[in-house]
Automatic annotation (TrEMBL):
The keyword Signal applies. It holds the Pfam family CBM_48. Residues 1-21 form the signal peptide. It comes from Rhizobium hainanense. GO terms for molecular function: acyltransferase activity, transferring groups other than amino-acyl groups; hydrolase activity, hydrolyzing O-glycosyl compounds. The keyword Oxidoreductase does not apply. One of its GO terms (biological process) is carbohydrate metabolic process. This is Enterochelin esterase. Residues 43-99 form the Glycoside hydrolase family 13 N-terminal domain.
Length: 385
């Protein structure tokens, strides 16, 4: 090679310089237990965040909507910070390592996202826990969507004791928000745990819950193709139309064919958060003969993303009041993402005298601390009338 290189240069050939692999990242010392280097929940409910990054110059951790917490470097290269005692909840967080946003590689709970940049950690002691109660079954279903001409996935939760010979059950279709995945309501929303625990306490009716993928990825509505400033004008309308077709042409027929489900509107509900709240609004109000229950949690609305069908139906308040047994709208009081949307929707509902339940969560923003309690409250209402 030493002789060949000058000959090639002399001959006028372009030769790239050799590329040498960088050194592998440092690993924690093998003589110490791994727990010394990874994040843990303490017995008192505080969290000790740890990140082994001996070459880093500055590390902080962002926990939810709080101000970032500076982490301190130990002599062994581990950065750490301990919180105060926290209330039982599922928290999201990420590390800032020299300006780079990183998940916690020392845990096994990344937030379900299309572009993963956040981790999750559970402080036990709430309805989000996996308790010693009868558990429902959660199945990941893959099906061909004729409406979208693609292979699609959805989760289907069936309650404890459900069998093929069970009496027909009502169905809730539950949509996630923008940037998340079909696993969002399962892993971050903790829907299976919430359902199991509420059923064990006899606070809700037995039901089947279908969790579709809100993002359709049809050619004209691939989320990553749109700048944030263009989503409401271009992405949301196209995606919502496609998701509505999938719901009515594929998902509902699939459930009717493969599960014992009720087939009247009073036995069918649609709900969602944020972008999924817009989907619930579009599908629920566009098909009043199909759904008897609609809920939008911090949802985008026609205030910023017009929909001709929905706007037309909103001008027929008597039709909505007759068809829907419950129309729920919730939002955090400090929500800067969809505050205008929800305020506009509520003003329309009030003006048209459309019956609805409205709940505002004080001092909360666009976050799961609004959406999980919203789901709990809706579950306690749905299918009981």
């Amino acid at each position: 090679m030493r002789l060949l290189f000058p000959l090639l240069v002399a001959a006028g050939c372009v030769v790239s310089a050799p590329v040498f692999a960088l050194d592998a990242p440092a690993s924690p010392p093998a003589e110490k237990p791994l727990k010394n280097f990874v994040t843990s929940v303490e017995k008192d409910g505080s969290i000790t965040f740890r990140l082994y990054a001996p070459a880093a110059k500055a590390v902080s951790v962002a926990l939810g909507s709080r101000d970032p917490i500076a982490m301190q470097r130990g002599d062994d290269g581990t950065w750490s910070a301990k919180t105060e005692v926290l209330k039982p909840n599922l928290y999201e967080y990420y590390f800032n390592v020299d300006g780079f946003r990183s998940i916690d590689t020392g845990t096994n709970a990344p937030k379900p996202q299309r572009q993963v940049n956040t981790s999750l950690i559970l402080v036990p002691g709430s309805i989000l826990d996996t308790r010693n109660v009868p558990h429902g079954d959660l199945r990941l279903v893959t099906l061909h969507s004729k409406a979208l001409d693609s292979e699609r996935q959805m989760y289907v939760y069936t309650p404890p004791g459900y069998t093929d010979s069970s009496k027909p059950l009502p169905v809730l279709y539950l949509y996630h928000g923008f940037g998340d995945t079909v696993g969002s309501w399962v892993l971050q929303g903790r829907a299976p745990q919430i359902l199991d625990n509420l059923l064990a306490e006899k606070k809700i009716e037995p039901m089947i819950v279908v969790i579709p993928d809100t993002e359709t990825d049809v050619p004209n509505a691939i989320a990553e193709n749109f700048p944030a400033a263009d989503r409401r004008a271009n992405f949301y309308p196209a995606n919502a139309e496609a998701a509505d077709r999938e719901l009515t042409e594929d998902l509902i027929p699939y459930m009717k064919k493969h599960y014992r489900v009720r087939n009247e509107a009073s036995g069918r509900a649609v709900a969602g958060l944020s972008q999924g709240g817009y989907q619930a609004l579009v599908s629920g109000l566009s098909h009043l003969d199909t759904f008897g229950w609609v809920a939008t949690f911090s949802g985008v609305s026609t205030t910023t993303v017009p929909n001709k069908t929905v706007d037309a139906v909103l001008n027929e308040p008597e039709k909505i009041n007759k068809a829907l047994r419950n129309f729920t709208v919730t939002v955090g009081s400090k929500d800067q993402v969809v505050g205008k949307d929800v305020a506009g929707l509520k003003a329309t509902l009030d003006d048209k005298k459309i019956k609805h339940e409205y709940h505002e969560y004080p001092d909360l923003q666009h976050e799961m601390d609004v959406w999980r309690p919203s789901l709990v409250a809706f579950l306690e209402e749905v299918f009981k009338k």
